[in-house]
Specification:
With about 450 residues, the chain is α/β, with parallel strands linked by helices. Among the domains are: about 85-155 and about 165-180, Glutamyl-tRNA Synthetase, domain 3 (Alpha-Beta Complex), CATH 3.90.800.10; about 325-355, no CATH class; about 370-445, Orthogonal Bundle (Arc Repressor Mutant, subunit A), CATH 1.10.10.350. Helices cover about 45% and strands about 10% of the residues. It has helices at about 20-35, 55-70, 80-95, 105-115, 135-140, 190-200, 210-225, 255-260, 265-275, 285-290, 305-320, 325-330, 340-345, 355, 360, 375-385, 395-405, 410-420, 430-435, 440-445, and strands at about 10, 40-45, 75, 100, 145-150, 155-160, 165-170, 180, 205, 230-235, 235-240, 305. The chain has a 3-stranded parallel β-sheet with strand order 1-2-3. α7 (about 210-225) links the parallel β9 (about 205) and β10. α1 packs across α9, α1 crosses α10 and α6 crosses α7. The protein is elongated, with a radius of gyration of 31 Å. The model has no long low-confidence stretch (mean pLDDT about 95).
């Protein structure tokens, strides 16, 4: 039983594909709000569009949320709740707020075109309200199926947005919205309001592209006798070019980022904190973000996602990942060893890069040897100290080489690095040498 004073939020995706960063933003902001206030998080699948919604997509959304660190307290599917919507339709019809309309799409297009020619707003003229019983019977005899519109009050609807501040939406400038299609299926608006009432949603947190919908929805809440929740509309996340993320445009999905090896917390940080006054920096958990992010910190300007910033953030997260947090993932890759992890993690951009870097320790390595360095490397092999080795072994070895050859700096160290690792860059050789061991070093030197 939910306390009447408890915060209850919902995130309501349409399961028509995998979620992208733009979808992840409200999913996370709702999660933060619920966690910050000890509230309940409802995942509502808006799956009334039977032609496009799939169970596969719905299951994929749950997987993506779990990967990000979100565990809903309640899951509901609109496809299983039609009896509630049917009852709401009857209530609105009885109250005179829902009325049948028989215009075809072509007729509505012509009406809108005429209004534009007359420099009038292309809103519905409510002609259906003037139909007689005989008119409706004639249309139905012709085989027309009515769609049903909600009769707006046509007034300034005011609400205090918990992100954007005081807002006014004048429904007088809007068409009466269609709530029920001619085939009897429901559009988004009615099921959303009915569910918010039934689930006792206290806060609706979503993108600012829904601000104008809020005026309509508040009127429907009131017409159904429901408690109007608080609304908060955040700025929208855009890609690096300033375009909105979209399933239709094939925007990169959260699952794509997972497959590419990004840390889930890196994606969560970028999706939620871009376009806020909180810095893009490393956080260990979502709760840490929830405790710091206040909605007053959300900018009213754009929130542009920077993939370079994501790459840099991801690298910083991997560089600070303790062995305890890495050991299970290392084991799944067939790797082990705290010393190896602590030495190599600073070189990683993504966690799975460890597979290539681990070869510096485990082999195989393809040495890079320049002909002019062969004699030097042969001497290095001869002067390689005996075991046991520690972190002083590297300086002992290179000091002996410096004395014997006069080489120093890059001329001394680079040929050794390239022969032992096959790379120009990498971890400190004084530590790597100990992990590689004398036998492997002898095999890599010519």
């Amino acid at each position: 039983m939910i306390s009447p004073d408890a915060v209850v939020v919902r995130w309501a995706p349409s399961p028509t594909g995998r979620i992208h960063l733009g979808n992840a933003r409200p999913a996370l902001l709702n999660w933060f709000y619920a966690r910050r206030h000890g509230g309940t998080y409802v995942l509502r699948m808006d799956d009334t569009d039977h032609a496009r919604s799939t169970r596969e997509s719905a299951d994929g959304i749950e997987v993506d949320l779990a990967w990000l660190g979100i565990t809903p307290d309640l899951l509901v599917r609109q496809s299983e709740r039609t009896a509630l919507y049917d009852a709401a339709v009857k209530t609105l019809i009885a109250a005179g707020r829902l009325y049948p309309c028989y215009e075809t799409e072509e007729e509505l297009d012509r009406k809108r075109a005429r209004a534009r020619l007359l420099n009038k707003p292309p809103i519905y003229d409510r002609a259906a309200l003037s139909l007689s019983d005989e008119d409706r019977a004639r249309f139905e005899a012709e085989g027309r199926k009515p769609h049903w519109r909600f009769k707006l009050d046509g007034r300034p609807v005011q609400f205090n947005d918990i992100i954007k501040g005081p807002q006014t939406v004048n429904t007088a400038s809007m068409s009466d919205p269609v709530l029920v299609r001619g085939d009897g299926s429901y559009l988004y608006t009615l099921p959303s309001v009915v569910d918010d009432i039934d689930l006792a949603i206290t806060h609706v947190i979503r993108g600012e592209d829904h601000v104008s919908n809020t005026g309509t929805q508040i009127e429907i809440f009131e017409a159904l006798g429901g408690t109007v929740p608080a609304f908060g509309h955040h700025n929208l996340l855009t890609d690096a070019e300033g375009q909105g993320f979209s399933k239709r445009l094939g925007s990169q999905s959260v699952s794509d980022f997972r497959d590419e090896g990004y840390e889930p917390i890196a994606i969560a940080i970028m999706a939620s904190l871009t376009g806020t006054s909180l810095p893009i920096e490393t956080y260990e958990t979502l709760d840490e973000i929830a405790n710091r992010l206040d909605f007053s910190m959300i900018s009213h300007g754009s929130a542009r996602f920077d993939p370079i910033e994501l790459d840099n953030l991801n690298a910083r997260l991997v560089h600070t990942l303790p062995y305890e947090g890495a050991v299970g993932r290392l084991s799944s890759l067939g790797l082990e060893g705290e010393a190896m992890w602590l030495l190599l993690r600073e070189n990683l951009r993504k966690f799975n890069d460890i597979q290539d870097w681990a070869k510096l320790v485990t082999g195989p390595v393809e040495p890079i040897i320049v002909d002019e360095d062969r004699d030097f490397l042969a001497l290095a092999k001869a002067l390689l100290p005996s075991e046991p080795w520690d972190e002083n072994t590297w300086s002992q070895w290179t000091d002996a080489l410096k004395t014997s050859t006069g080489r120093k700096g890059k001329a001394l160290f680079l040929p050794l690095r390239m022969a032992l690792t096959g790379r120009h860059d990498g971890p400190e050789l004084k530590s790597l040498l100990v992990l590689v061991g004398r036998t492997a070093c002898l095999d890599r030197l010519p």
